[in-house]
Specification:
Blueprint lengths: L1 E4 L3 E5 L3 E7 L5 E8 L5 H7 L11 E3 L2 E4 L20 E5 L2 E3 L4 E8 L18 E10 L4 E10 L4 E10 L5 E13 L4 E7 L7 E6 L3 E7 L12 E5 L9 E6 L5 E7 L5 E7 L6 E3 L4 E3 L3 E6 L2 H16 L4 H4 L5 E3 L1 H4 L5 H14 L3 E4 L28 H10 L3 E6 L3 E2 L4 H5 L19 E2 L5 H18 L3 E4 L11 H6 L6 H19 L4 E4 L9 H4 L4 E3 L6 H11 L8 E6 L12 H8 L3 E5 L7 H23 L1 E6 L8 E7 L5 E8 L11 E2 L9 E4 L3 E5 H6 L2 E2 L19 E12 L5 E3 L11
Parallel strand pairs: 24-25, 24-33, 25-26, 26-29, 29-30, 30-31, 31-32, 32-33
Antiparallel strand pairs: 1-2, 2-3, 3-4, 5-6, 7-8, 7-13, 9-10, 10-11, 11-12, 12-22, 12-23, 13-20, 13-21, 14-15, 14-17, 16-19, 17-18, 18-23, 19-20, 27-28, 34-35, 35-36, 36-41, 37-40, 38-39, 38-41, 41-42
Helix pairs in contact: 8-10, 12-13
């Protein structure tokens, strides 16, 4: 998967893509191509390496080298050397800028990239993995730049990471060091990003690129509700499933920058990495700094194809392999059932009802620790609230386990309440300004996770609780952004404050590493006020993330559609909650709430004691159905047929299939009723096998895959004012699940579904 030509050109490829870089005339590394697989020849390399063009105001590299960097496609550009576009790296020494000239030194090819809990990275089976490492050196500045490229045979992605090593005798300051650059020869793209705010995370946003710079970024200390580290470039004006599309996503959870610049010659440069603002790093002699990885993806089938590339990559090369096949528990979370008003008797009654309807895990949310009766106190005091659990939390956990349920607990380990024993004992362990006021959010401060002593203390507290309760599941929350970023610890050890944000994130990863080393089968669900830290860096440790605090089914159509552009269904934690919905006040049918939530990891978060027998029976049937569906959620292919991209869009459609495409599940959602709608509507099923025949919902058919592809499946009949007896969708917020089961011919020539069990699925 890696060809090297004359130590000059490097071709990374698999059956899906090619990525080509080659030395420029000045010995630096340039970019030639990223896209569909090429059968490359030496003549092709010469053809692609056209060099720079003479333009007015172009700065030559040197007197003896007329070559210019101003329009060159570079793999790791440095601002200030004749290229006036934004660069990947900026360093100073003794307060003077350094302009490195990184010239090719050597390369190596390897095949081993194992999963290492100390740092979130992609990983893969050596048989599927090729790694190209290129060393570039500036002998004058005594700096070594290492660029590493990883390609997997099963993925249309290239993963990049950069390392800078100080080979000199004096320290240098890194002021800017991004993970990588992607240069494209033209600028006719729409930029697609996932933006919003709390309860409206990761909505699909699209806008055309023009000359200038567009950026997506976060300076909140986390990837944030407002922005997401994923961006895409899509051929301008093309439909969702048509045209070339490029994606970039960081394996990182802190401050980030995605920047896309179109220059005066219509060239596009995409940069991604740690946000340079509020960042600096002292690179002492003989030490190195390594960036987070950036995942570059490609599809010629538009955003629909790019979505599938991204989903498969994350599922196979980011998420812990033990969770790819292992069933995820359907949880019953206590929060919206009890809030802080909880006790053993009330919780046990709730858990018993959960067991009756088929949930797998009972999760005790906020309020179980310290003296916590509201959100004013006790964060940091991770010991049992004896008023609520007089026999101890271990005893309560035994009772939950005795019901045949797994047991889970809520933690917010990165935070502390001013009213807590922890804060009284360690007032210098919080992020606080050197002088002046401290901002406060939700009655809590942020712990200084750049300080190893803080991380070790929190780990010791959590370890005691996890051991005592034989805990199966942790919900890890984060409910405020970082303000007044100053670390008393870094000041004490003499490190620049510009290192704080990155060291903080490293501290978060260290706590994950400690927990999963001690408890390797513990399921940790990421949660940051919902989706405020939905990023690959968290997914490396947490196989699922609470997708959003907004659990309303209609709002989730847009949130989950956007999330699926970059992330698989298996990482989206979705709960069915009560109506009217707590976040928006909307009342949607129980069936619709379930059908939206089923496209992900299902849970329930409502007071079962307030439901009638019919509702409890419906939930029991839903969970039984979902247990049959979950293998598709974990390992199937998901396609956004009609993603929700705007509030005016009335119909949404999602499609799940197994790899053989013999089993398909279509989720169809209609937001508002439509007067006098057409009696018969069809939706094309592009993944249906033309030569396969399917039963639709176990009783209609068999219908050929060719018909389903070219004509479509008949959608449920909508009420038009005169067809009440025939109508299947009446009113607002309606939905349907349609299943397609491949059939086999019997000895009598009749066709039957491959399994009778699957016949029931469409009726959930």
């Amino acid at each position: 998967m890696i060809d090297v030509t004359d130590d000059h050109a490097f071709h990374l490829y698999n059956q899906k893509i090619s990525y080509i870089c080659a030395l420029l005339p000045n010995g630096q590394l340039g970019h030639l191509y990223f896209g569909p697989r090429l059968s490359l020849t030496t003549a092709d390399l010469t053809y692609l390496s056209q060099g720079s063009s003479p333009f007015a105001w172009m700065a030559n590299f040197s007197d003896d080298q007329p070559f210019a960097l101003g329009d060159a496609q570079q793999e790791y550009p440095v601002y200030g050397t004749g290229d006036f576009r934004q660069g990947s790296l900026s360093v100073t020494q003794a307060d003077a800028p350094v302009y490195p000239n990184f010239v090719f030194k050597d390369y190596q090819v390897s095949h081993t990239k194992m999963r290492d809990l100390h740092h979130p990275t992609s990983f893969g089976n050596p048989a599927l993995t090729d790694i190209l490492t290129i060393h570039l050196e500036d002998e004058t500045a005594q700096l070594l730049l290492t660029l590493q490229y990883t390609i997997f045979s099963d993925s249309a992605t290239v993963v990049r990471v950069a390392t800078l090593t100080n080979q000199g005798a004096e320290p240098v300051m890194i002021e800017r060091m991004l993970s990588g650059a992607l240069n494209l020869p033209q600028g006719r793209y729409d930029v697609v990003h996932l933006s919003g705010n709390w309860a409206k995370e990761r909505h699909i946003q699209t806008q055309p690129l023009t000359q200038g710079t567009f950026s997506v970024e976060s300076l909140r200390g986390a990837s944030s509700h407002e922005q997401n580290p994923f961006v895409a470039l899509h051929a301008a004006g093309q439909p969702f499933a048509v045209g070339d599309a490029y994606g970039a996503n960081l394996v990182y959870s802190g401050n980030f920058l995605d920047s896309i610049e179109v220059n005066e010659w219509d060239q596009t440069r995409l940069l991604a990495g740690i946000h340079p603002a509020s960042f600096s790093w002292r690179l002492d002699p003989k030490t190195s700094f390594t960036t987070p990885e950036v995942v570059l993806s490609f599809s010629s089938a538009g955003l629909a194809g790019l979505s599938q590339v991204n989903q498969r990559f994350v599922a196979r090369h980011i998420i812990d392999p033990q969770w790819r096949q292992k069933p995820r528990p359907v949880v019953l979370n206590s929060w919206e059932a009890t809030y802080f008003d909880l006790n053993e008797q009330k919780l046990l009654h709730l858990a018993k009802l959960g067991r009756q309807v088929g949930v797998d895990c009972f999760v005790l949310d906020d309020g179980w620790f310290g003296t916590r009766d509201n959100d004013l106190s006790s964060l940091g005091d991770w010991f049992t609230n004896k008023h609520k659990f007089p026999d101890g939390l271990g005893h309560f956990a035994e009772e939950i386990h005795g019901l045949g349920l797994q047991f889970g607990l809520w933690f917010e380990p990165e935070m502390v309440s001013p009213r807590s024993q922890f804060f009284k004992e360690h007032p210098d362990w919080v992020v606080r300004p050197k002088r002046g006021r401290m901002s406060i959010t939700r009655h809590q401060y942020v712990l200084d996770f750049s300080n190893p002593a803080v991380v070790n203390n929190i780990f010791a507290q959590m370890q005691r609780v996890i051991t005592e309760t034989k805990l199966d599941y942790v919900k890890w929350d984060l409910n405020r952004s970082i303000t007044e970023a100053y670390s008393p610890y870094l000041a004490k050890i003499g490190h620049p404050q510009g290192e704080f944000f990155h060291r903080y994130v490293q501290g978060v990863y260290t706590l994950y590493q400690k927990l999963l080393t001690a408890f390797p089968h513990l399921l940790i669900e990421g949660c940051a006020g919902g989706g405020g830290r939905f990023a690959l860096g968290i997914l490396f440790y947490s196989p699922q993330i609470w997708t959003s605090d907004d659990s309303d089914a209609i709002e989730r159509l847009a949130i989950q559609s956007g999330t699926a552009l970059a992330y698989p269904l298996s990482c989206m934690s979705n709960h069915v909650t009560a109506i009217p919905n707590e976040q928006v006040g909307r009342s949607t049918p129980l069936a619709t709430r379930f059908r939206v939530a089923a496209f992900g990891i299902l849970g329930y978060e409502l007071d079962l004691t307030k439901l009638d027998d019919a509702a409890l029976a419906a939930i029991k049937n839903q969970i039984a159905y979902y247990h049959e569906l979950q293998p598709l959620v974990l390992n199937g292919d998901f396609r956004l047929l009609l993603p929700r991209q705007s509030n005016s869009q009335n119909q949404v459609a999602w499609l799940l299939s197994d790899h053989s495409r013999k089993r398909l599940v279509l989720g169809f959602f209609r937001v508002l009723a439509d007067a006098d709608s057409r009696a018969v509507q069809y939706m094309k099923i592009p993944v249906a096998q033309p030569n396969q025949r399917y039963w639709v919902n176990g009783h209609t058919g068999p219908v050929s895959g060719d018909v389903l592809q070219r004509v479509g499946v008949r959608l449920p009949i909508q009420f038009n004012g005169a067809n009440r007896q025939q109508a299947q969708l009446i009113g607002d917020y309606q939905s349907a699940l349609l299943t397609f089961d491949g059939v086999t011919a019997t000895k009598t020539g009749k066709h039957q579904p491959e399994t009778r069990k699957q016949q029931k699925v469409g009726h959930a």
